[in-house]
Amino acid sequence: MGKFLGTFFFSIVLILSIAIVFDLTEKIDEFFENQAPLREIILDYYLPFIPYYMNMFSSLFIFISVIFFTSKLAGNSEIIAMMASGISFRRLMLPYFLSAVFLFVLFFVLGGYVIPPATGKMLRFQDQYIQKFTTENARNIQMQVEPGTVVYIETFQRRTNTGYRASLEHFDGKVLQERITADRIKYDSAYCWHLEQYTRRRFDGLVETIDKGPRLDTIIAIHPDELFITAEQAQEMTNPELRAFIRTQRERGAGNTQAFETEYHKRWASPLGAFIMTLLAVTLSSKKVRGGMGKNLGIGITLSALYILFSTVSTTFSVSGVMTPFMSVWLPNFIFLAIGAVLYIRRVRM
So what's the pLDDT on residue 228? Predict the structure, then answer.
């Protein structure tokens, strides 16, 4: 178990060091052009960069580590000696399983609670100095802010906290009770909004009452920042924040939660990949083969790369609406778990 984890952390240091060098080479021109301070480059970008990509490619690191360590044991005939002494393959798997449990807990806690706040710094750095993904204007906003209350804003400016051509509708069940339209809507504080040049229509059966005015103050349970949340920001939310955000958006009838649901499922599926990658790697490399460690490493890198590629591609199906977020995230785990189970059964029967 100690050698497995030692090999795992050594591979992380080695591969991430190479990744940082390549990333710095690619982005150094943008750092200079946008005058990024050295302190922010180190603390706000590359310091969060390490745990972020360590978590993202954890399955690759686990696979390579297990392949390397187990192939070395098999190459020295140590596995053959252990099994000849009466140790079953199931018993041989126990230290690997315990290591996988440790890595699952580690990456679940890191990915769900520790890494997201640091990722927020990295995303803000990228938005400012590398590639801007936030916007100062939002268009065609429509959401249910509370049961029976729907707000619509045609355009909204972040800088002035002002929207144009807005409407606020109150329903009793499916019956429209009141509709307020305004040329401008402006946020004040504590969910207080000002409707300027408004027209209010109240409906009581077939009777309609209309009144107009220059300004109407009202409470709308929404903050301007909530109008500008992008899919990238899912990565900087902790697990409780993600759950709360998804629940709130569903209650509001928002239809842009796929990226956030996908991210939430990944927080569980990715750490559980530790068990799948460990199972696959042990069953593939525990038998002594011609070609030695190089052949097993080649197979391991190929399979882990396919797993990461499949996981990345399948999540795009969720965003496009082809698959549910749950299925798009968990499908690679289901497929590779089935492959690992078949290889494990074959290995036990040998």
Answer: 83
